[in-house]
Amino acid sequence: QSICYDPARNWTVSVSWGYAVQIIRGWIPAHEMERPARTFYNWGKNKDPRLFSFNTRPWSKHPCEEPYVYFFNNVVMNTANNVSWSEYMLHRNNHTDCFWKVETPEKISRVEVYKIPNPHKWDQAPRRDCCRVLPTEKEGTMVIDVGEC
Fold first, then answer.
1. Is 26 left (phi over 0), alpha (psi -120 to 50) or beta?
2. Burial level of 142, CB count in 10 A (0-12/13-18/19+)?
3. Which of 14, 84, 130, 134 has its CB 3.0 to 4.6 Å from that of 149, i.e. a possible disulfide?
């Protein structure tokens, strides 16, 4: 998982390569984003999330912090420059109105992620890759570079 910020739009971006990209309005600290979001509830009478032993991050109850989720759609490896390009498409679901003065991610329908594979990563101490939101002229598209910090 890579976490970065888009300072121009005041967004937090989480890239789980090969799975999903999430864009959330506002700045959420990396140590909070590292914990997986709780996506389940207890199906019994007691809905207390503390009954689970998983270290999860609760979903925010604030509609402005609801993530926009882009699911993996395609990947291409450019062997000429050793860069992988992956594409993520917006999962359309009904987002409630947000009255923050922060731009909405709903105009972004597609995310492109570029990454140079590191075959020696498994031999190194665990660490998170950094990601950077790159400027683009492509309308409705966010471009992200994932790599070493």
1. left
2. buried
3. 130
